[in-house]
Amino acid sequence: MDDDRPGERQLALMRGAPAKGRAPAEPATELPVARVLVDVPLAHLDRPFDYLVPQKMAEAAVPGARVKVRFAGQDRDGFVLERIGRSDHEGMLAPLRRVVSAEPVLSPQIARLSGSVAARYAGTRSDVLRLAVPSRHATVEKQASIEPAEATHDVPAAGRAWEGYVGGAELVRRLASGESPRAVWSAKPGEDWASLLAHAAAATHARGRGVVLCLPDRRDVARVDRALSTVLGERHHVVLTADLGPAARYRAFLALSRGAVRIAVGTRAAAFAPVHDLGLVAIWDDGDDLHAELRAPYPHAREVLLLRAHEESCAAIVGAVARTAEAQLLVETGWAEEVVATREAVRAASARVNIAGATDAELARDAFARSARLPKEAHDAIRDALQAGPVLVQTPRQGYVTSLACDDCRTPARCRHCSGPLALPAPREAPTCRWCGRREQGWVCSVCDGNRLRAPVLGERRTAEEIGRAFPSVGVRTSSGERVLSEVDPAPGIVVATPGAEPDVAGGYACVVLLDTWLMLARPDLRTSEESLRRWLNAAALARPAAQGGRVVVVGESGDPVLQALVRWDPAGFARRELEQRGSAHLPPVSRLATLVGDASAVSAMTDSLELPPGAELLGPAPFDPPPGARLQDSQVRVVVRVPRAAGSQLSRTLVQAQGVRDAKKLPTVRVQVDPVALG
DNA sequence: GCTAACTGAGCA
DNA sequence: GCTCAGTTAGCG
Predict the structure, then answer these.
(1) What Å value separates CA A664 and C1' C10?
(2) pLDDT at A419
(3) How far is the CA of A17 from the C1' of C3 (A)?
(4) A307 CA, C1 C1': separation in Å?
């Protein structure tokens, strides 16, 4: 198809051919040009460059291979995207320096995905590829590949597992027959969700198609790992988590990229797993912020998987006990079908949910509550439940809540102008509203007329001490942060856990107590309600059904709509309202939103250069204080840009372009983040 | 980001 | 006419 003797002209043009000494390398006779994606993290260089393939490398320089090339005067890493007959490039082509390995580590699907993820998040492909392709481990690569294991699956069993859901059996049937259904699945309380995910994977695998499963953390990955081993045996899936280490990670990666194994289970980076013949992508608890990548361009595993489902025309399951506004949007746009348990099934599986300490004023009068943060009703429920089994007490994480509360009745202190949360900008300074920035001089509690403020003292250890004092004869264990208990005995006992660290227990907890719910709701963030409900539903789902005496006691304000959604166990209805509110507030996912952080002058220069679509809004610049722990940078500002969702790709495009211009001009960096998980 | 090529100042 | 520091375009 190409002109005869392709090498000749380019040989003459080949640069890098030394003027003295060595003769220029002979170009490959077949497809002598490699289109290479060079690893440079600069927006304006995020495009393929052509190199000449020397005959010596003709065999090894396969599409997807890692190569070294001379770029801007130095050696850089790159991936061969494709081999072509001739280049469009006018000038001379430099030869490939070296083929690092003939292993095709970048499949066409992942190459394409990296492009769409970069476009979606206004980042570069090289940044995305750093997340998608693990570093090479030569020893592992040399070892023989595992032989594909014969698959034998019990599809009827998978159908039975999903029977408890409207549309569940149908979902499995379609997966098993090679179709690509898309579902937003709301798991009922106490569900063995890991097992259901494993069955969905098995049904897909029965047709020889591949599966990617993303879970928020190591512990959930381990659960699904076990469930898959039970359903399918141990040889059909690999686990991909950050803590594997380079050799094990590369081994798992190769097993997938060589097609020996077709099911990948892991944390967020597994969203990029090079699974062959992708049939299903699934994410569990997509509201968990662990699904958001911390490195540029900060992609969210759910969005990566949805892009893959779209590009590779495969099935998708977005599953959780709660439901995010993003998942709700998939339902409302008709992209996905709801898979939910019937009302009766949910009721049968739910514990009895009560709200204790109906009002803050009541709580303030409750002397016991003031000493132990525990209303009498909650105390009694724990005491009774301890006769029957273990009790879970969920308490907000230390440092999670930064706003102030009334010293007398613990009602969160709110700004009288905009009802934003009050916080101390610095010790000894006047309380300031975190939303509107107004200083509050003569604060008076709206509930009890108290005038003293306190920073709430929180943390699971402190709570455990208080609970321990209230129940001196019972063992109290804690689970949080670095010390997470994955499981506890079904024997009576109290576990104090922070959200996400609740241990599993066989048969469920006799009672689950949710403490300080008003403090979690007082967090200034765009996802506060959704996130609070998610955490409470996840904890409450661990309680035994009411028929077995299971109880959930929620310490909070009964009138709060979020607590009402918890009592009614209505994640879908809540998500519907939440999505509606996001719409009227122009927040994601109804709007596409980006933040620009940097020096005031840099940020304003960048915003000026943006070609914004109609309907775009610019908020700020506002002073930006870096999150605690981040290194201090002086006078950083933040601008929030938002556009209607339909204009999202246009927003990303203009951001990439502006970044490209800034990179090329060596202007001070502006950190761009599209749809950040948190916006405090 | 980096290098290489280009620029003009300074000097013989 | 040449060197050298400083600048900046372009990277195959």
Answers:
(1) 9
(2) 60
(3) 28
(4) 63
- Residue A184, CB-side half-sphere exposure with 13 Å CA sphere: 24
For Cα atoms A112, A588, A282, give the angle at the middle one, nearest 5 degrees: 50
According to the 3-state scheme, what is the secondary structure of A210-235? EEEEECCCHHHHHHHHHHHHHHHCCC
- Residue A350 burial by CB count (10 A; 0-12/13-18/19+): exposed, middle or buried? buried
> Does the nearest atom of strand B lie within 7 Å of A73's Cβ?
yes
CB A530 within 8 A of CB A325: yes
In A592-625, which positions are buried (b, 16+ CB within 10 angstroms) versus exposed (e)? bbbbbbbbeebbbbbbeebebbeebeeebbeebe
Interatomic distance A666 CA / B12 C1' (Å): 37
Chain C nucleotides with an atom closer than 7 Å to a protein C-beta: 10-12
Summarize the confidence of residues A396-421 as an average pLDDT: 66
Does any strand B atom come closer than 7 Å to the Cβ of A19?
no
**CB neighbours of residue A79 within 10 Å:** 27
Give the model's confidence band at A11: pLDDT under 50 very low, under 70 low, under 90 confident, else very high.
Answer: very low
Determine the average pLDDT of the residues in A244-270: 94
pLDDT the model gives residue A379: 86
What share of chain A in percent tops pLDDT 90?
58
Nearest residue to nucleotide B4 when comparing alpha carbons to its C1'?
A73
Instruction: Quote the mean pLDDT of chain A.
Output: 86
Is the C-beta of residue A18 closer than 7 Å to nucleic acid chain B? no
Segment A639-653, tens digit of pLDDT: 999 999 999 999 999
Q: Is the CB of A70 under 7 A from strand C?
A: yes
Q: Which nucleotides of B are covered by protein (CB under 7 A)?
A: 1-4
Q: Report yes or no: A255 and A238 within 8 Å, Cβ to Cβ.
A: yes
Q: Is the Cβ atom of A42 within 7 Å of strand B at any atom?
A: yes
Asked whether A579 and A329 are in contact (CB, 8 A), the reply is yes
Query: Which helix (H) or strand (E) segment is A347 a member of?
Result: helix A343-349
Q: Is the CB of A72 under 7 A from strand B?
A: yes
**Whole-model pTM?**
0.88
